[in-house]
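Notes from hallway chat w/ T.B., transcribed later so I don't forget. T.B. wanted the structure written out for a chain they're using in a teaching module, and asked if we could keep both sequence and structure tokens in one place. Agreed to drop them here.
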Amino acid sequence: MRNIKMTVEYDGARYLGWQRLGDSDKTVQGKIENILSNMTGEEIEIVGSGRTDAGTHAHGQVANFKTESVMTLEAMQEHLNRYLPRDIVVKEVLDVPERFHARYHAISKKYSYYIWNNTVPSAFERNRSFHVADELNYSLMHQASQKFVGRHDFLGFSSLKKSKKSTVRTIESIKIIEHGNLVQFAFVGEGFLYNQIRIIMGTILAIGAGRMQLEDIDAIFTSGIRAQAGETVPAHGLFLDEVYYEEV
């Protein structure tokens, strides 16, 4: 039995997210599994590094699957990219140790959120960034972003209800990179709660536009109340860039 690791790039605009939903063919996982099952003659189930929501994109989603197929890696990749829709591409296929697990062995992830900051929207970036017409204070947004770096209880910056599961997470870094009107907010962390990045982004943008204050972030960490934070910005500005792994 072989264990195959894939790195996948996709435009999530047409899909209900990564994770297969029952027998739905409108997920990225479902599309890939159907082709792998037909290719190998086996019932293939792939394990992703994590979910991405409807509309979210990926430059480097990672998944693995088990198979008894003797096909070469080159033949597998060529077959997948021939039959997958053009908005899903398998960038790399590798044989990995039997115990490798795309989700359990991930130690951190990099996500980027993109905004188009101009009074005029972009025809080309409309499905890959969030249009923000406000004039933004980038110095304040940098200060706001650094308040989220470190280990915190992010309950107030997630869509989760209070539960027995921990809402404490570590964000290693947040960088703001300007590409003209297209602005990238790059997050690296051990893992993220449901909607955590999108709510943090809504909060940072509200501070940049003057609708919230820097001190509000500390108050939300203390209260854990989601309603006090910024809006949940749209999913189409979010990309899963890379997944980092421990040695297996």
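Follow-up for T.B.: The two ends are 17 Å apart (CA to CA). Might be a good example for the class.
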